[in-house]
Design goal:
Helix content: 40-55%
Strand content: 15-25%
Distance between the termini: 61 Å
Number of strands: 13
Shape: flat
Radius of gyration: 34 Å
Oligomer: single chain
């Protein structure tokens, strides 16, 4: 180097850089800030009772990674927005925060995945209950106000792999009809061939019995028995050829198809759809910014309840509607909270059903739960519409309703309506005595028959629940709870989906999704 270059270099000042230089102190823990979130996670899990998790390990055999350490690793990774088991394992090898949390252990991605999907699935609610208990002890929550809402999160499944319940039933019914026709033909062949069988010949094939895979297998067996009775050294006659053809159709075509449809219905149970690549996922309409009505995709309905923006309870459902999820969700929350429930439940109109109101009443819970027409009923337009049932007068001693035009509607009959959950409601039907000549008839009467009168369906029990809900919602406390609901639970969903970017599950199956 020239003297001139040396002088320029001498003027530069750098912090010493020696890669092979030993630096004290050597403790990893000393490199982590005191208030870092990794310390919060570590301290919180150390305070939990993880005995249920430890009880899942039978002992003996090859040593396992400590479940307390694995729990800390998973919780901190999710806090750090790392969800992939391979990335979690990579962080445990390379990131100083994870290295300290793991105490130098380096679980590979298979160990992380196995712990998350297999070990955690049986005790996830117990661990979550410990989190809620810790929050209550630290005075972050009081378990007073429970803000409930649901959102749909896409499943890790092919969005074009649907199986629809209605289509499966239609195809199965069509196949059953084909089987009936073929059974009749087989019966006819045997009757014509041998009169000794009479009306009882191959009775398993027909007689109006349910047709399923078992019936088809039985029919194939009967045909085989009949063919075995025929002389083998003679040339097959017309009836034998028909029986062989029928057997081939049953065994190679109808039986596999029937087994397929029965398998699909077993997976569907009470649902209307499922995905071929994740049988537990149901096709639901996902809210998309660029689509008005959303797009049908396989997913799960995630229900959460919050207080002070902490998640106090959660559950995963296969039903896309929120209404049918409330009871099951609150029962899960009850198990988390040792048989107790928060004092007040606050939810939007998606939960306002007779079944849910009755559940809240039976469990002596105060509630601020809207019903579907709550806001409409408060509008001036609704109040001025004399065709609305809510604006009709009821005369109790005559059990009659009087419409806004002053004409009576008398009781006709009552019937029971059963919900998807099996809940029965009693509906009373009333009909107007004479709606002819009414200036509002075209708007009021839905029937296209020229002399039809207005009919209304009245659910008295639900109306009583609605009146109680209306009083609660319009009270001073109700107005406060209604204003807090979007701030509470909606912001938590925004944090999960927007900040954490969780818009699609990584794991497949209801149990694994529940853990995730």
């Amino acid at each position: 180097m020239s003297k001139k270059g040396q002088k320029v270099h001498d003027k530069k000042v750098f912090i010493p850089y020696e890669q092979n230089q030993l630096i004290l102190p050597m403790s990893v823990e000393s490199q982590i800030p005191k208030n870092h979130v990794v310390r919060v996670v570590n301290r919180a899990i150390d305070q939990m009772n993880l005995a249920p998790m430890l009880a899942k390990y039978p002992g003996g055999g090859r040593a396992s990674f400590n479940p307390v350490m694995m729990t800390k690793l998973l919780v901190y990774a999710y806090t750090d927005k790392i969800f992939s088991c391979r990335r979690i394992a990579k962080a445990a090898r390379e990131n100083i925060m994870y290295m300290w949390l793991c105490g130098g252990n380096k679980p590979d991605f298979m160990a992380v995945n196995r712990f998350r999907s297999e070990r955690m699935k049986d005790i996830i609610l117990e661990v979550f209950a410990e989190v809620v208990d810790l929050l209550e002890k630290e005075k972050y929550i009081k378990l007073e106000n429970y803000f409930l809402d649901g959102t749909k999160i896409e499943a890790n499944a092919n969005k074009y792999s649907w199986v629809w319940g209605k289509a499966t039933k239609r195809y199965k019914d069509a196949l059953m009809e084909k089987c009936r026709e073929l059974f009749k033909e087989i019966d006819k062949i045997n009757e014509e061939e041998n009169d000794e069988y009479g009306d009882s010949d191959l009775e398993e094939l027909g007689n109006g019995k349910p047709i399923d895979s078992g019936a088809i297998e039985e029919a194939v067996r009967k045909i085989d028995e009949r063919l075995a009775q025929k002389p083998q050294d003679k040339k097959p006659d017309t009836e034998t050829k028909k029986l062989k053809k029928a057997r081939k159709t049953l065994d190679k075509d109808y039986l596999p198809r029937m087994q397929k449809y029965e398998g699909q219905q077993a997976i569907l149970e009470e649902r209307n759809s499922y995905s071929k690549t994740d049988h537990d996922a149901t096709f639901m309409r996902m809210k998309e910014d660029h689509m008005k009505n959303g797009q049908l995709k396989p997913g799960y309905n995630v229900q959460i309840g919050t207080e002070n923006q902490f998640i106090v309870g959660y559950s995963i459902h296969q039903n896309p509607g929120d209404t049918s999820c409330m009871k099951e969700h609150l029962e899960i929350v009850k198990s988390i909270l040792d048989g107790n429930l928060p004092k007040n439940v606050i939810a939007d109109a998606g939960y306002g059903s007779e079944e849910n109101y009755e559940y809240l009443q039976d469990n002596e819970l105060e509630h601020y739960v809207k019903y579907n027409t709550f806001h409409k009923e408060a509008s001036e337009k609704w109040k001025a519409d004399i065709t609305k049932v809510q604006n009709f007068s009821y005369i109790e001693d005559r059990d009659e309703y009087v419409c806004g035009y002053g004409r009576p509607l008398v009781f006709l009959y009552e019937y029971k309506r059963t919900s998807d959950n099996g809940y029965q409601s009693i509906i009373r039907v009333y009909e107007g005595l004479n709606c002819s000549g009414c200036p509002h008839r075209d708007k009021c009467v839905k029937s296209e028959k020229p002399f039809a009168n207005r009919r209304i369906n009245i659910n008295r029990k639900l109306n009583e629940f609605k009146e109680k809900a209306r009083q609660n919602l319009t009270s001073e406390e109700g107005l406060k709870m209604r204003s807090l609901r979007p701030v509470e639970v909606e912001s938590v969903f925004g944090d999960i989906k927007g900040n954490f970017g969780i818009r699609r599950f990584l794991l497949k199956g209801l149990e694994k999704v529940n853990v995730e």
